[in-house]
Amino acid sequence: MAPGIGMPSNDEAPGRVSHQLPSQAAQVSVAIEWENIMQHEPKFFRYEKVAVLLLSWDDTCDDLRTDGEVEKLATVFETRYGFEVRRRKLNNKKRAHIQMVKHLASFVNRFEDQSDSTLLIIYYAGHGWAYVPEGDELRRELRLVGGKNEQKWRREMSRSSVMWTEAEKSIIGSEADVLLIFDCCHAGLIGRRSGDPNRFETLAACTADSKTHIPGDSSFTTALIWALEKLYSEKKFFTSSDLRATIMDHPHFPKNQYPQWDQRVPGFSPIVISSSAGEIPVTMPQEQAASRAANASYIDIRMHFDDDDDKNEKTMDVARLLQSLSQENRLPARRIDFLGKNTVWSSNQWRAVATLGTHWLEYTLRRKRRRLSSLETENL
């Protein structure tokens, strides 16, 4: 390396964090507590049409036996909320991925243009695997799988599995708002990715690095059905974020499981769900909300504490202070979101960046020396 040029040591690295990054479940737990303190008020508008697509596997692939819970969920959506429900089952007679794309495209085509205000709810129950593409170990994708027999799955990969990141392209850009609800392991992988011009939200049974329970008293879908019944009897309308919080209140829902709620485009108010008979206040048209989200600006600020704040006491103190300033109109921000804790830089991350920078600098200097050597040879 040339004299006078060097990379900073670990102590000089900006934002150095000496401890390990929290798990995704821990991050979601802090985000839930943050939202409870902030109490963001959604801007409501009423959907003229709500349609639900329930996706699962048929008996040849459904070793989890999800059919009973899915049928109960369909009944709640139809009889309580008055939503139009479509059930579709995947099988291994034809490629499941093609079946999924067909079901999604047909569903969107059937319902998205029936009115100016439509919500599409897409639910999935079954196995979910965290798939790491070959040659790209830093990226994980959600693969939906029929049956848990790994050897059988390897032989029939093209028939009994769906790569969700590819399949969901059938609904990206829909004129309707979209809410994905996935009950499978590693469901958090459906979360925040590329943006979408309309409201596009995801409610996952667990975080990307976690597993969920099989059908039964402690399953996510059982808690989802219970939450929908409870909210129906107690409220005329509620947000998708409220639904997540109520699911966690189910008496048998695991206390160490954190359903993950995400928005593809930050800035939209959460999706509002109501029964067909319910009346909700209309304060912001869909077009106005979309325009405001598209024109919004953001500031990301990092706060440094002197200790690890393992119990999140300082983090919640910050939330309460910001919420108070916002209520008193002393803070010109419409919404204050929690993006993560210790997620910007860790010592290992900085070391990786420093190493990459060193290699790049050495490569650049070698090229420069070769060019100079070539010029000197030409001048001889």
TrEMBL record:
One matching Pfam family: Peptidase_C14
One GO term of the biological process aspect: proteolysis
GO terms of molecular function: cysteine-type endopeptidase activity
All residue ranges annotated as the Peptidase C14 caspase domain in the record: 68-209
InterPro entries: Pept_C14_caspase (IPR011600)
Annotated region (Disordered), positions in chain: 1-20
Protein name in the entry: Peptidase C14 caspase domain-containing protein
Organism: Viridothelium virens
